[in-house]
Amino acid sequence: MKKLETIEQLKKSIIELKHENKSIGFVPTMGFLHEGHLSLIKKARENHDIVVLSIFVNPLQFGPNEDFERYPRDIHRDEQLALESGVDVLFAPTLKEMYPHSPSIKMKAISRVDVLCGKKREGHFDGVVTVLTKLFHLVQPDAAYFGQKDAQQVAVVEALVKDLNFPLQIISVPTVREENGLAKSSRNVYLTNSEKQEAPQLYRSLQYGVQAIENGERDPFAIVQMISTYLNEHTSGEVDYIEVYSYPSLEAVNVLQGNIIIAIAVQFQSARLIDNIIIEI
């Protein structure tokens, strides 16, 4: 595995791979790898000659009161996991390498961003599309892999690729979960012992909503109310949102039909957890 820290090193490596007609699968991450990330690497490994993994904690997607400084980092552990998982190229740039000066051009995500996490994280997805645009240009992948747990991010990235005509495919990989149903997340390390016992209830609440839909419920408001009651009864966290939209357009619906996402966010003492289920009705 090659570990590269500069853009010039990465450019040179990609040129060589392209000359050899190697297909490239790309997994962009902010590090502190867990089984969810490893599932993306595995899928890329199955589909491509070369797997490129990036590790970069992008400050542009953190708000002023968010956890950029506290975001967990362990590059040595990440390197070992990347090596064991079959990554060919690990790109781990510094902040100065990625953003050496103030930008001359500012990117702004417009659609699919004013709901779910984007509603309270102004500018978050501007930061996401900015860093991914840079990385897509540098890596020139045939496909990029994202976890379905961050379903809004997947929807925004799909729009980015379509609007700017990037010659790559976005592949969404199902959420990896603990045995108890809790979605894998780097932020799970912030949960207290009691919160770890409660956190699996997020996924169970979503399953409860899906069961109601399968039993014939078609009113999105009713589904929201059912999930809200469930979460308030089974967790001590504060419900941030429970929302039902069409997917991937993330538009409001009056009647549940077609491709639908049920998404939730719950704020615990030191960790905000998100989860979702996407179903076709």
Keywords:
281 residues, Rossmann fold, 10 helices, three-stranded antiparallel β-sheet, 9 strands, 2 domains, single chain, six-stranded parallel β-sheet, Pantoate--beta-alanine Ligase, Chain: A,domain 2, alpha/beta
Explain this structure to me?
With 281 residues, the protein is of the alpha/beta class. It has two domains: 2-173, HUPs (Rossmann fold); 186-274, Pantoate--beta-alanine Ligase, Chain: A,domain 2 (2-Layer Sandwich). The longest helix is centred in the middle third of the chain and has 16 residues, at 124-139. A six-stranded parallel sheet has the order 1-4-3-2-5-6, with helices on both faces. A three-stranded antiparallel sheet has the order 7-8-9, covered by helices on one side. It has ten helices and nine strands.
CATH class category label of the largest domain: Alpha Beta
Radius of gyration: 19 Å
Tell me, briefly, the overall form: globular
State the share of residues found in helices, binned by percent.
25-40%
CATH superfamily of the largest domain: HUPs
Strand segment count: 9
Order of strands across the main sheet? 1-4-3-2-5-6
What's the architecture of the largest domain, going by CATH?
3-Layer(aba) Sandwich
CATH topology-level fold name of the largest domain: Rossmann fold
Query: Quick one: biggest sheet?
Result: 6 strands, parallel
SSE string, helix = H, strand = E? EHEHEHEHHHEHEHHHEEE
How many individual domains? Answer: 2
Mean pLDDT: 96
Distance between the termini: 44 Å
Beta fraction = 15-25%
Unreliable residue stretches: none
> Helical region count?
10
Function: Catalyzes the condensation of pantoate with beta-alanine in an ATP-dependent reaction via a pantoyl-adenylate intermediate.
Pfam families: Pantoate_ligase (PF02569)
Subunit structure: Homodimer.
Organism: Bacillus spongiae
